[in-house]
Amino acid sequence: MDIERKLRADINALVKERVSTPGAHPRSFVIGAHFANSLSQCGSKHRVKSLRACADVIAAAPELLKSRSDHPLRVGGCGTKPVTARRFDGATARRCKVEGNVAAALRLHYWVLPDGSLELASVNTHDNMTIPACRRDRRNPQ
C-alpha cells in the first residue's frame, strides 16, 4: 500500500470513530502534495496525534473543532489581517492544534475549498505560519 493510501485509510478509520459526535458532518478530503512529507518530518511519535487532528477537522463536529482551537490562518498571523486564500481556486486556509502546552507544539494547516471539501496541507510547529499552496489533482478524493 502506498503512503497516500495508507494515510487515507488511517484517517478514514479515525473519522468513523467521530461520526457519532453531535453535529458531525464529515467532509470529503484530499491529501495535499506536501502533507505526507511534512507529517514524516514531525517524527513517528507525532503521527497518530496528527491524524486524529485530521479526523477531527474532517468530521467537522463543532465540539471537536472547538477543542482543536480551529481558526483561519491569516496573512501575517495577526487576528485583524485577512484570511490566507489561494488565488487559483479561492480556497481558504485554516489551522488547528495537533498538540498543546508543549514547546514547538504542532499545528495542522489545511485548505477549505469552495465546495466545502478539504485539502490537508501540512503539519507545522506553532510558529510556522506557512501553508503549501500547491494542490494535488483531485484523483484521490474520499
Describe the structure.
By secondary structure, the chain is α+β, with helices and mostly antiparallel strands. The chain has one domain: RelE-like (YaeB-like fold). It has a five-stranded mixed beta sheet with strand order 1-5-4-3-2. The protein has four helices and five strands; from the N terminus they run H-E-H-H-H-E-E-E-E. 30% of the residues are buried.
Q: Major beta sheet, specifics?
A: 5 strands, mixed
State the secondary-structure class. alpha+beta
Distance between the termini: 16 Å
Low-confidence stretches: 138-142
- Overall geometry: globular
Kindly report the name of the CATH homologous superfamily: RelE-like
Multimerization status: single chain
Count of helical stretches: 4
- What is the CATH architecture term? 2-Layer Sandwich
Tell me the number of structural domains.
1
CATH class: Alpha Beta
Radius of gyration: 14 Å
| Order of H and E elements | HEHHHEEEE
% residues in beta strands:
15-25%
Strand order of the largest sheet: 1-5-4-3-2
Defining traits:
142 residues, alpha+beta, YaeB-like fold, five-stranded mixed beta sheet, 4 helices, disordered C terminus
Please outline what is shown here.
The chain is an alpha+beta fold and 142 residues long.
